[in-house]
Each structure stands twice: as structure tokens, then as C-alpha cells.
Design brief:
Elements (H helix, E strand, L loop, with lengths): L6 H12 L6 H5 L3 H11 L3 E2 L2 H12 L5 H13 L5 E3 L2 E3 L9 E2 L4 H10 L10 H4 L1 H10 L1
Parallel strand pairs: 1-4
Antiparallel strand pairs: 2-3
């Protein structure tokens, strides 16, 4: 990865990610964990997202605007509060000193389930199953 974005840019990119705009998620991944933590504080209050955010991500992914990798990294950021250096379905490892950001989306069980699935996108045991379910995930969030 190349040069880290400046702190104001990291805050803007984190806000975009919380809104489901993943166009620049790869740029956000270049930020340090300390920058992510400071960006979360700068946004103020509790960091949250809900159905509309996940629907935007799913629809953009289905429509080919996002890659599997972009969706995977977004889900990891929302689930873990960081971009882990190593990830498997069994856990993750990171070597940063700043704490992870806390993102709250737990009041919606459907959102929880889908983010939990998306974090495993592309892992060795996925075998394309998650991508094949995108229309069902959209329907699940739209119908409830």
C-alpha cells in the first residue's frame, strides 16, 4: 500500500464507509489504526449504520460497482473496527497500538447476520456461496 491519507481525508472516508459508499475503501485501508481511531472520534458520538447502508453496499456489489474484496474489507472494518493484517474465518491478527473503532449496528438482527457473512467473503470456505446469495440478502433487508 502507498502513502497514508491525511487525517481529514480519513474522517471523510470513514463517514463514507458508514454510509455505504465504498468507492474509496482501498484508500481508507492505507490509513493507520490510529488515524481510524481519531477519525471515529472526530465524527463524534456513536458510529452506527443500518439497513440502508447495507442495502447500498449489496446493491452496488450486485451491480458490479464493487469488488468482492472491497465488500470483504468494508465488512471487516464494520465487524472488527479495524483492517486486520491477517484474517481467517477463525480469527484475525493485527500489530497496531491504537484500539479498534466501535461501530454499532447490533439493534438489527438481519444487518448483523449479513455483515457477519460478508466478512468471510472470498475466504477458503466461502467457495462463491456468499456472492451467490446477494439477491437473497437484498430481499431479506428489503422485505423486513
Amino acid at each position: 500500500m502507498s502513502e497514508q491519507p491525511n487525517q481529514d481525508r480519513v474522517a471523510a472516508l470513514l463517514k463514507d464507509a458508514l454510509d455505504g459508499d465504498l468507492a474509496h475503501i482501498d484508500e481508507l485501508r492505507r490509513a493507520s489504526q490510529e488515524q481510524l481511531h481519531l477519525a471515529g472520534q472526530a465524527l463524534g458520538g456513536e458510529l452506527t449504520f443500518g439497513r440502508m447502508t447495507v442495502l447500498r453496499v449489496l446493491r452496488d456489489w450486485r451491480d458490479g460497482k464493487l469488488t468482492n474484496e472491497q465488500v470483504h474489507w468494508w465488512a471487516l472494518l464494520m465487524f472488527v473496527g479495524a483492517f486486520p493484517e491477517e484474517w481467517t474465518p477463525y480469527g484475525w491478527r493485527s500489530h497496531f497500538s491504537s484500539q479498534s473503532i466501535q461501530v454499532d449496528y447490533s439493534d438489527d438482527e438481519d444487518v448483523n447476520d449479513i455483515v457477519f457473512e460478508l466478512k468471510d467473503l472470498g475466504d477458503f470456505d466461502d467457495e462463491g456461496r456468499i456472492a451467490a446469495e446477494v439477491d437473497n440478502m437484498i430481499r431479506q433487508l428489503s422485505d423486513s
